[in-house]
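pasting for the record
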Amino acid sequence: MRVLHGDPTTWEAGGGHVVTIGVFDGVHLGHQHVIGLTRAAADRSGLAAGLITFDRHPLTVLAPEHAPQLLTSLERRLELFEEAGLDTIGVLPFVDAVRTLSPENFTVRIIVMGFGARCVVVGEDFRFGQDRAGNVEVLARIGTEMGFEVEPVTLLSSDGPISSSRIRILVSAGEVEAAAAALGRPFELRGRVVAGQGRGGRTGPSTIGLMVPGNLVTPGSGAYAVWAAVGDGEDVAGVASIGTAPAPKGAGQEIEVRFLDRVAAADAASVGLRFIGRVGAGPPSADPPHPAADAEAVAAEARRLLGRRAP
């Protein structure tokens, strides 16, 4: 998979593409549906399958005070795009020169000049261009003039439309199993290993602290059964503890992870977590998520949850 950065007029994507466009935060089931249709349309036409995304969430520029924490980093999104079988990704810098493009200029500079699009696959609610002035109908009109087709996609729904916003709410509420159902995989976080703060009991050889970047959403306070990916080794069963004190906006969130099966590589630079389920019923309390006296009960429940979903 090729990844193109910078000015789209210099991308030289090569050949014709069937392309889709969006932030795709989380790469959830709705996104996967659109990407799958893009891949299928490309295969039918003998063209490459491409995707245009942004280097940051547009709201970080348009309205920073309303910018959401993200479900996935750009690095993780690119990994998921490759797993989905896409051929070319254009990472568009969301700067003023892009933000102020009219729908017509956005289409010419990015979709046509950047990718040589022959077909554009987008959700039925797609908006683009300055002030979100463009929609599917506008894109189809421009496509008729510029020589590409537009394939609108009906949004997937499961008790309401599947959206990144909805999944962020689920994660923040600690409903990681519901979030996994909408993502099509467990919710994931990767953090930098730091010294623990003892929230899950005394920090020791089998307990580490992880600092998660502040621009990523983290589950609500509590204890969670997780599979931890440590280095190049196998996944390790664990319990992740998240305290009740919210991190300042933009600051990293520390998570304490207690390994259950064996002592993991404590010198690992980073560890990835897949959240399988919340340990314990009911809403979070102000008490530590799993005090030392309850450590064995927490471990037993975590093992039960993890046994239902092997790594």
